[in-house]
Amino acid sequence: xxxxxxxxQKRGGATDAERRxxxxxxxxxxxxxxxxxxVPESRQDALVDAxxxxxxxxxxxxxxxxxxxxLVVTAVAAEAIDxxxxxxxxxxxxxxxxxxxxxxxxxxxxxxxxxxxxxxxxAVLSNLILLAVDTDSGYGAA
Length: 142
Description:
The protein has 142 residues and is mostly helical. Helix content is 56%, strand content 4%.
């Protein structure tokens, strides 16, 4: 068997197919974690849609992941990070104002999160940006 007969290897000895499956699973996890955060609902919906588009491309063996799709994930995640950073924070849930809201597109006085929720949302969003940056846009290229 010549070196040309072996499957292509990537980081950690994983083949392209294995790495692709790992990335698909990572997007599934990211979508689940996003839906559990206190990111504004409109940003959350946009991020889930963008992640689903990337995941769909990864699931289609013949399709490459569009750089534009990855840029959308990155841009919306960055906007969501800004929203979360601008949100009013309280120490504990008991300190929430009566009209706590997550369904706004950008923070208002009513967009309030606990410090722990803020940190969790920022971690999820930061990890999503890293996932998008790490996603190979040439998976389908031969």
